Amino acid sequence: MIEVNNLVKKYGSHVAVDHLSFNIEKGKIYGFLGPNGAGKSTTMNMITGYISATEGSVLINGHDIFEEPEEAKKSIGYLPELPPLYMDMTPREYLDFAAHLKGIARRKRNKMVEEVIELTKIEDVADRLIRNLSKGYRQRVGLAQAVLGYPEILILDEPTVGLDPTQIIEIRDLIKKLSKHHTVILSSHILSEVQAICDQVLIIAHGKLVALDTPDNLEKHVSGSNTLELTVKAQDYKVKSILNKIPEVRKVETHVSTDEGCTDVLVTTKMEEDIREKLFCEFANANCPILSMTTSNMSLEDVFLKVTEGKNTDRRTYDKSAVPMHLRKESK
């Protein structure tokens, strides 16, 4: 759907985006993360053709956004962080105006405007002035504008910023619904939001790509290990003696459980090892029942901090294409 190749954006001597390359596949929700000043909004503005690039190319369905802007933009719906709304219009008037700008044929325009009004649930305010709407409804109007024309790709820059918890949940649900028919790129500072709704996560720092994978894979592979939390009906010393016989176990931490006669244990293995079945069999053979077993990986917040910390961003990149996936050091 989108191919970003060696993209660079300079403002004088400042490099906002530094030779950025990645591909966006059809039918997924992508979370686009990075610290403030990392180049997220600049990248999104270049992908949509809103600003030019210093170097590199962006292909939208095979069309270069800088060489064939009209063809490329037909596939994109864009919601900037501050929706470009006209406060003296009603949502219905604004959407009709936006549909005209998008070149939607007059015979289709009214029907499509009504469809996106219903989709984004703004029927109750469709004929009120936008200046009198709440932040949440204005966000919905901006999203309705992005959906007009039913573009294959939706690019949403901080779609839930400034909303209350109820409004955030409503916008999240709407984005999930839209993802059934659109590829979505979502920029957000709310990492729990990205983890909840995104299939893939891109993280950039200092204008460079430092991670691209699923949230679960990022958590596993950045930590370099798997962690299991167990509650075993056995004493501490017996739990340790059983685990010491299993070669895949790298580290064991035990604590007295709140359940009488039980031990809580944290077992760390290598990233590629899945020893759950082996653990079950070993403890069962020793007549030590496992009362609970859960996996525990790094949080997305921990991953974000690890891959964007200043000392690493210029030389460490999470490489999705490697087999097995790992963090690789790149030469400067």
Could you explain the architecture of this structure?
The protein has 332 residues and is α/β, with parallel strands linked by helices. It is built from eleven helices and 16 strands. It has helices at residues 40-47, 69-73, 91-101, 106-119, 135-147, 165-178, 191-197, 215-223, 236-243, 276-285, 300-308, and strands at 2-11, 14-24, 29-33, 55-60, 63-64, 76-79, 153-157, 183-187, 200-205, 208-213, 225-232, 249-256, 263-270, 290-295, 316-319, 326-329. Strand 9 (200-205) and strand 10 (208-213) form a beta hairpin. Helix 3 (91-101) crosses helix 4 (106-119) and helix 4 (106-119) crosses helix 5. It is elongated, with a radius of gyration of 25 Å. The two termini are 30 Å apart. Mean pLDDT is 86; it is low at 311-332.
Key words describing this protein structure:
single chain, 332 residues, alpha/beta, six-stranded mixed sheet, four-stranded antiparallel sheet, elongated
In short:
With 332 residues, the chain is of the alpha/beta class. The protein has helices at residues 40-47, 69-73, 91-101, 106-119, 135-147, 165-178, 191-197, 215-223, 236-243, 276-285, 300-308; strands at residues 2-11, 14-24, 29-33, 55-60, 63-64, 76-79, 153-157, 183-187, 200-205, 208-213, 225-232, 249-256, 263-270, 290-295, 316-319, 326-329.
Determine the strand fraction and express it as a percent band.
25-35%
* Helix fraction by DSSP (H/I, runs of at least 4): 25-40%
Radius of gyration: 25 Å
Structural class: alpha/beta
Which whole number gives the mean pLDDT? 86
Number of strands: 16
Alpha carbon gap, first and last residue: 30 Å
Largest sheet: 6 strands, mixed
SS field, number of helical segments: 11
How do the strands of the widest beta sheet line up side by side? Answer: 6-7-8-3-9-10
Secondary-structure element string:
EEEHEEHEHHHEHEHEEHEHEEHEHEE
Cα shape: elongated
List segments where confidence is low: pLDDT < 50 over at least 5 consecutive residues: 311-332
